[in-house]
Write a structure and sequence with these properties.
alpha+beta, 6 strands, about 25% helix, about 20% strand
Length: about 110
């Protein structure tokens, strides 16, 4: 496992699951039930669904991917990335819908090369 898979523990106390052990088992079961009950192929993973009624903390816990990848490493991808705004507030960026803004945040932080 690489060292990037550490708990996202920021100054505001919002923690995002970054390892399989940190993913809520109830979330895993709920997503599997959706997959099992679906009669037609889903156009989006259950974890990718956007629910605007969720709080920032709930969005921070939502996981899009919790499965082994092609190399056999078990990966966890948060559905939302919680970012700090210039005014000190925080917002959740969806890993697909807001991908361009996430890239901008990464570049501004100096990680994008």
């Amino acid at each position: 496992m690489n060292n990037d898979s550490k708990v996202n523990d920021n100054d505001t106390g919002i923690n995002q699951p970054m390892t399989p052990e940190e993913v809520d088992p109830a979330q895993k079961r709920a997503q599997q039930e959706i997959l099992d009950k679906s009669e037609a192929p889903l156009t989006v993973n259950p974890g990718d669904r956007i629910d605007e009624s969720k709080t920032l903390e709930e969005k921070a816990q939502q996981v899009a991917v919790d499965a082994p990848d092609i190399t056999g490493d078990h990966i966890v991808v948060p559905t939302y990335f919680v970012v700090d705004e210039p005014d000190g507030s925080q917002k959740a960026l969806h890993h697909v819908k807001d991908a361009e803004e996430i890239s901008d945040v990464v570049r501004q932080a100096g990680y994008g090369g």
